[in-house]
Amino acid sequence: MKIQFNNDREYDIIAIGRACIDLNAAEYNRPMEETMTFIKYVGGSPANIAIGGAKLGLKAGFIGKISDDQHGRFIKKYMNDVGIDTSNIVVDKEGHKVGLTFTEIKSPEECSILMYREEVADLYLTPSEVNENYIRKSKILLVSGTALAKSPSREAVLKAVALAKKNDVKVIFELDYRPYSWASADETAVYYSLVAELADVVIGTRDEYDVMENRTDGKNEETINYLFNHSPELIVIKHGVEGSYAYTKSGETFKGQAYKTKVLKTFGAGDSYASAFLYALITGKDIETALKFGSASASIVVSKHSSSEAMPTVEEIEELITVNA
Amino acid sequence: MKIQFNNDREYDIIAIGRACIDLNAAEYNRPMEETMTFIKYVGGSPANIAIGGAKLGLKAGFIGKISDDQHGRFIKKYMNDVGIDTSNIVVDKEGHKVGLTFTEIKSPEECSILMYREEVADLYLTPSEVNENYIRKSKILLVSGTALAKSPSREAVLKAVALAKKNDVKVIFELDYRPYSWASADETAVYYSLVAELADVVIGTRDEYDVMENRTDGKNEETINYLFNHSPELIVIKHGVEGSYAYTKSGETFKGQAYKTKVLKTFGAGDSYASAFLYALITGKDIETALKFGSASASIVVSKHSSSEAMPTVEEIEELITVNA
Amino acid sequence: MKIQFNNDREYDIIAIGRACIDLNAAEYNRPMEETMTFIKYVGGSPANIAIGGAKLGLKAGFIGKISDDQHGRFIKKYMNDVGIDTSNIVVDKEGHKVGLTFTEIKSPEECSILMYREEVADLYLTPSEVNENYIRKSKILLVSGTALAKSPSREAVLKAVALAKKNDVKVIFELDYRPYSWASADETAVYYSLVAELADVVIGTRDEYDVMENRTDGKNEETINYLFNHSPELIVIKHGVEGSYAYTKSGETFKGQAYKTKVLKTFGAGDSYASAFLYALITGKDIETALKFGSASASIVVSKHSSSEAMPTVEEIEELITVNA
Amino acid sequence: MKIQFNNDREYDIIAIGRACIDLNAAEYNRPMEETMTFIKYVGGSPANIAIGGAKLGLKAGFIGKISDDQHGRFIKKYMNDVGIDTSNIVVDKEGHKVGLTFTEIKSPEECSILMYREEVADLYLTPSEVNENYIRKSKILLVSGTALAKSPSREAVLKAVALAKKNDVKVIFELDYRPYSWASADETAVYYSLVAELADVVIGTRDEYDVMENRTDGKNEETINYLFNHSPELIVIKHGVEGSYAYTKSGETFKGQAYKTKVLKTFGAGDSYASAFLYALITGKDIETALKFGSASASIVVSKHSSSEAMPTVEEIEELITVNA
Questions:
Q1: Is-annotated flag, keyword Kinase (chains A, B, C, D) (predicted)?
Q2: Which DSSP string do the residues of A181-242 spell out, in sequence order?
Q3: Is residue C246 part of a domain?
Q4: CATH no. for residue B163?
């Protein structure tokens, strides 16, 4: 099975949600308390996916809200420089700051993060800042689950999803669950299932699907039975080192393997996976190849220092796949 | 056309949303500033509809949150006394009060109201307080638009709608727009269209549909073209004294006339309309008759002092219809 | 001892704080749940004291914030009609409502109240709405403790106290403790002691002084030792039916007796006490007489239906004192 | 004139207020947008003053609230390591983070900063976390104006000031005005004058005194006339490169000169000034010498990379004073 996209669209992918700052430890093998130097990168799941897509050659756009300060200007310039259309990135005029994520690089197994997400600009995107004329120019609208955590960003995303569906833009829902911003598990479950039911493709870890279903120990079989009763035609469920599964509404199941690599840190894996997986779908590759692209991209990023700057090229991905074939 | 209900359900109708206190002027023909005495009634659109339904003989239940004080206890007792099941009315334990509505009775054309709706208990209903086992016992879930105005009530209602659909309970969406509680017109439009698209029956004034569409001067034709692309099978649009229209998905249009009466005050008209209209549908009457029931009930209530206490019996409604036939 | 006032001032007393609506049960001897009719009065401790003072012939002014609605207009008109200068009453332009107090009249011992104090207009008075030119026209600034409960009213009052002291206006601090609005006992204690240390006269119940000292079972001796180290020259501590004590910095102690009466309800006692006590001080009576005036006024008000409308005249007070001499 | 301290106290100085993280640009001569690497230090005015004092040999303590995370632990360890008593630093249990200050080092004249101060832990210090037994062990309580910006920190500081006065601990008020956290200029003026009137020593820039007086173009003469009517016995007003003035209640005026230095960045000047000025007072030096200590310390810190780590020793200060004598 292949997902069919509207090929007459100007953009391959428009992502909506947060663009933030990552401050990654410059010193390795020590806890954050002892880390004295941090290096600045653009971060945030949908921003990383757009950056990853752009580096792979996709025509990408971004809808979001950034701060009217030094960090906001850095983000916009960086995204512009990698070729992302930033015309629909709004500058906040009420003093909200962009989110921050400090990371430590203690060991491949332990990389704690420390997030600053109070009153962040990205969650102040309003429905009136979401433009139908922009969304309908794209093949894909990529929605990050975190953007549903608070009003008015929540409503901006719900409006974007409605406009995408009205204009035959495929909705990709990356669950991207960050407990920090949410009021309650009940609330998360309400919006995650609402948007998952409306999406065309849903991507997440098994744990994230459990959040959507407000349960523990969920089963893939039950999840896909539930979601295939609604809009989704493709569901990707990731099980960490055990690999990932792609299910199609028509009944197929595909299994993807993780590639071995020398892991520096684990963050960034999900975003690089999503960008390469979507790149493969958009360029007409089959689902099995798309799973390989996702895994290869994730494997490259976890061996490097950043999430955004480390996003690989198509050549790097293909080489890794070939080497491991 | 007739709406088909699940006849093996214990409840005819379960309403979700606010139950409040009305304080109606005891002195007529003067502005509220000069009104010194007020009489207390139960109020709030979904509570009034449940009360109206119960007085007509429907088996009704209610999902909502009330204050842990004298007003909350009055509301629960009153609803119990008219035969409503109150087992799913939750008592707030965080000090939230029930809403208040002071009314003046200045003239049939001028009846200003004054609402106390800050941090009211009804908007603190949480998703975890909505029970699937309760909802699936009903033919109808009646949703009031105001309950969507704020979290966590908003999520409680979205969950209730999802549970109703999952369990084949008809969702009736009474738009019931009250600008007071909403953050923005954009936000209202997002949730009104979201729930209207999921509902089986939508009832509102032309102005309320304009709120849903975030526009002015909307046209019935466009509204029904939009909504019939989604779940609704019956749409009622009220045009005040010019009467109301009922549209079916199968293409029929019915017009209902307002009955002449001696108007004391205008509030309460919408709730009495909805309760009698739904009573007629549930008891298997055709849509034309249901429109008459709605108009007759409204005409009776606007001639009396309260919204809840004044709800008519089936005999009163039928007599009025016969007299005006 | 007599308190010395600046006799060249235009106003005898300017009160700062809340003006609200009381909704008193029109039906007696029943709980509020069964009370169906309520009668509207102006309420709120500093408003009642100003009204009481005006009825006794004092030239009174008021600084406060009221709602831009029917209740706000009623309050302003009522205060104007009893002769209070309302030029410094500000009308809220952000939708805040005036507070409400529902009362039941169950028995002389049991009169529960139900308060609506969420986001009330009086607590939104800002420092910039407090005018030095107004305050310096008065002999007395009467400060109600409840006005310290939240910002920006808290800062408006702190500014008013600073301006009063700068302009040789006597500061009377009526502790008027209402737990509802306060974040914590610690916070109350901080502001109560701050203002009590700056005041010239402090009036409150023994329980309210305990709140100021953040303790239980406080002793009058310790309280006056503490406060007389600061600005106060007169301290009144009320012990309910056991009567009240007035202490002077120069070392005198006076005891006041409560007058027997047929009690209808207990609310309103403190405000009527304060207004008559201050009237006596301002008109040059000695402290013993002032205590009698306070007790007589309280005894009259608790036998009547309202707190404000029931405020007695000088003749009524003097007659009661004479009868009981 | 010399300030007299209680020499039998265990601590020379206890500071109350914020302890934060500074993230200083590791790359010089470029705007923050282009700065990619940041170095972490402890920051926050009262923390810096305590650190500066401890490096000069004072026995220092700190009252404040830090986050329960990697940054909070770093701060506490750093302060411990320089010899500050941290027994009264409270760890926040509600998820509040410590404040952050990103700095650029563009040129000696231009060093923009970017602050993260939303819902920061330091402003959640409560009155109940301020202990009388601790405060009364100190000669000095150093109060930072920023700690007055929000409740409950505001009340914690007001309580600390009251306890200091009750226990004969000198209150030093460092105005330390940061507009970011304040609701309005009116509010700042209310609390700045309230605490300045209660303090023994007030230190600030001319601009900060204007904030206290809620005016522009204030005059030193008027400021000291006002404050010497209340508690202060020593007032320091800084005029940047033009030097600073110290005024005593007994009528003396002293002028301090700024020392020439090679400026790297300007932040940190005020804190290093205060710590060395107070060190000199506490160790019994006269006011003229204290002014020199303050200027010398500031001159050393602005030539170095951090605010806290760069705090000088007594020897460094004395050498600079000697060289410039």
A1: yes
A2: G-S-HHHHHHHHHHHHHH-SEEEEEHHHHHHHHT-SS--HHHHHHHHTTSS-SEEEEE-GGG
A3: yes
A4: 3.40.1190.20
